[in-house]
Amino acid sequence: MSKINSDLNLYNTSDRTVSKFVPLNPGKVGIYLCGATVQAPPHIGHIRSGVNFDILRRWLTAIGYDVTFVRNVTDIDDKILHKAVHEEIPWWAVAMKYERAFTDAYAALNVMPPSYEPRATGHITQMIQLMEKLIANGSAYAPGNGDVYLEVRKLKSYLTLSNQKLDDLQSADDADLTYKKDPRDFALWKAAKPGDPSWPTPWGDGRPGWHLECSAMAHAYLGEAFDIHGGGLDLIFPHHENEIAQSESAGWAFAKIWMHNAWVTTSGEKMSKSLGNSLQVMEILKKVRGIELRWYLGSAHYRSMLEFSFEALEESSVNFRRIEGFLQRAKEILKAEIEPSISAQFATAMNNDLAVPQALADISELVRIGNTAITENNLAALSKSASEVRGALGILGCDPFDPIFANSSSAKSEVLDGLISLALEQRNAARARKDFAASDAIRDSLTALGIIIEDTPTGSRWTVN
RNA sequence: GGUCGGAUGGCCGAGAGGCGAGGCUCAGGACUGCAAAUCCUGCUACACGGGUUCAAAUCCCGUUCCGACCUCCA
User: Beta-strand (E) ranges in A145-223?
Assistant: First the structure.
């Protein structure tokens, strides 16, 4: 597991093919993921992106790479300013409120904190430096009104990710050619409007355009060239195209591989922010555990649409509980912690552009083998399959033994265990004298409390429903 | 108008020329005092019309339907 596996293949939006991953620096991987614009609580679509790229990160780490993972926070933009007016609190309070909401959601789903989580407003200096560079080399211009634009007509290449032609783009209705040389030139920097937050620059007070921050921050933390840049499908154009334009104009090689996750959809449509709050992460976590929501969000391939329904979520949870139940039984039977390991089949699946659905099929097979081993009391086979199941679940961020998912203190559990054992002794005494009415009454009482009793060849075990 | 993606069984969801993914649900069986859990068996699908091929869910042509992006977006 510590050996670097050279067989990882990833899909690159740049050339729309799956090809072998070769890091820029041996043994190291730099990833920049476009994070959230913190202007509303996260819905499950937002968090799918976090989960998908967290799985990528965990897999890269598992196969031996030293991963630097950067995920930004866009804490200044039009929507945040509008929200501030609407909520009657300062813009920075809006940004912090929803940044916390995202942080909580990531934590609830066991998405690892990034190596660095830069905020746009903390990197104005880097943005100004980038703009100075772009203006100095003729790529960008400051028309004098406080705005700064990138001149897209001068680009050697543009729209390479989305495969579009500049002249085919529908021009914006509100394109103002008073200052722009071309309607498609995009703003690196926006002049301050009265009442809006602003920062001083050589071209006047203003605030960042949306695209500039990612180029500046990726450069600050990962350098001129890095391995993987990720984000949602909708960021391909214009955001990622413009990041490329800015960065390449600055002479940076920028990202080698572009990876984009697909949507969580409802009724076949992209989840929109106007859906109300029923699909917010924290609302769904009232119905299922974080580990179950993560299992569901991670279960489809990252490039496939995931058609959300509460029925599908529940089915997925049932599937997960079967696997979780197996690991817990295995731990009890083996009387030891299960050491995670990676099966060859799981590795093959993950190396194939993170083929998680295939990996899940392999996990199901391992669980079946393990359950059969329990029946046959084959501890060696049980240990092997349990290890491989736990190892796979760890990569998927769904290890039920991960302390982050623990739901009760051990001291409390000991008391509970003592009490239930007392009841089970009574029940087993009744069963021994074939007083099944009495034994079933005890089981029914426990069931009513949410405690499930299972009789096994080696005795009765209990779990909390 | 331009660009990109999709349609798979009751449901979710892989695959991408041949050897039935997997899960969930449902039905039957084994085990069990009865359950639960587990295991076994069954439910043979790929939008439509052509074509290529010994062989097509997969490739080609056409059609229908659905969705995404085109300067707010995970």
Answer: 148-150, 186-191, 206-208
> Distance in angstroms, CA of A444 to C1' of B7?
47
Residues lying close to strand B (Cβ under 7 A), chosen from 141-170 of chain A, are 152, 162-165, 168-170
- For residue A36, say whether its CB is under 7 Å from any atom of strand B: yes
A31 pairs with which residues across the strands?
A69, A228
Cα separation, A140 vs A248, whole angstroms: 12
Residues 357-386, chain A, CB closer than 7 Å to nucleic strand B: 357-358, 360-361, 364-365, 367-368, 371-372, 374-375
Does residue A235 approach strand B to less than 7 Å at its CB? yes
Token match 């190291």: residue?
A28
Residue A430 clears pLDDT 80, i.e. is over it? yes
Domains contained in chain A, CATH given: 9-261 (3.40.50.620), 309-405 (1.20.120.640), 410-464 (no CATH)
Interatomic separation, CA of residue A220 and C1' of nucleotide B40, rounded (Å): 59
pLDDT, mean over chain A: 92
The whole-number average pLDDT for the span A433-462 is 91
Residue A172 banded pLDDT, cuts 50, 70, 90: low
